[in-house]
């Protein structure tokens, strides 16, 4: 049970945070991570439009409930959990396939982001996250001791 | 548990077979109710013919669809066009995800499935790069073995071994034969219990 990496994608599809916590995934350079973030942003949008499920009934005159995009993706060696905040920021957590409670972990990361990044007066919106305290606390939470 | 649709893509990125099932909770009146679509699968050659035919039929279908209801297409022809577009979108999604998985997990890693709040997409790829895709609701577990079964016991037996079907299937030629379709129908029924109505 390992958390491999956390990516934060802003609402425009740009990668704003990228950190690896444990080895297990292939090493990619930062350019590849940027491409990956942009690609995933697109796939996420497409996965919302190809929903074959019947729409949930909603009162006439109101908007239908929004469809969610990809929430989890399974591959042979890892699992990707995606959490999209109401403002469109996406948190991507790469874990080992058997990792439980990935949703809870990702929520906790979101809370930390809210506390330490969004409340930081020196952070400019939509820009890469360079907040030392966020790095430290996140590392303390997700890096396994030993 | 219910199944929404099933697609086969060949190695030339073409959708060679598609089939959709109507969810039982859907009321039939909301759906374009065309007998031309009763076969489920629509090979590309037949699609054009059906499109032409449905263009003529569409005025009769129109009154049954409320014009403000944009979630359902106006006519069966439109509906087929939407299926074609959807197949392309699904393929594009799979292609990108597959590449992403290989990039991150190594070249032997493979993409298995993804889940959104509304549906789940299951994926299986054969060594010959045939891609089997199934869209189900989110409560369904791993369907990889089921897709493997469809390939091994239905596709190989009834499509590959058929003397009438060509090696490649441009436009879905030779895939949608009676035995394969019937076998698929029964197999899906045996897994999902209640008979699923074909759309």
UniProtKB/TrEMBL annotation, chain A:
Keywords: Endoplasmic reticulum, ER-Golgi transport, Golgi apparatus, Transport. It is found in: Endoplasmic reticulum; Golgi apparatus, cis-Golgi network; Golgi apparatus. GO terms for cellular component: endoplasmic reticulum; Golgi apparatus; TRAPP complex. The keyword Endoplasmic reticulum applies. InterPro entries: Longin-like_dom_sf, TRAPPC. Gene3D superfamilies: 3.30.450.70. Its main location: endoplasmic reticulum. It comes from the Eukaryota. One of its GO terms (biological process) is endoplasmic reticulum to Golgi vesicle-mediated transport. The keyword Methyltransferase does not apply. Part of the multisubunit transport protein particle (TRAPP) complex. Belongs to the TRAPP small subunits family. TRAPPC4 subfamily. PANTHER family: TRAFFICKING PROTEIN PARTICLE COMPLEX SUBUNIT (PTHR23249), TRAFFICKING PROTEIN PARTICLE COMPLEX SUBUNIT 4 (PTHR23249:SF15). This is Trafficking protein particle complex subunit.
TrEMBL record, chain B:
Its main location: endoplasmic reticulum. One of its GO terms (biological process) is endoplasmic reticulum to Golgi vesicle-mediated transport. One of its GO terms (cellular component) is endoplasmic reticulum. It holds the Pfam family Sybindin. Keywords: Endoplasmic reticulum, ER-Golgi transport, Golgi apparatus, Membrane, Transmembrane, Transmembrane helix, Transport. The chain crosses the membrane at residues 76-97. It comes from the Eukaryota. Residues 48-67 are annotated as: Disordered. It is found in: Endoplasmic reticulum; Golgi apparatus, cis-Golgi network. Part of the multisubunit transport protein particle (TRAPP) complex. Belongs to the TRAPP small subunits family. BET5 subfamily. This is Trafficking protein particle complex subunit.
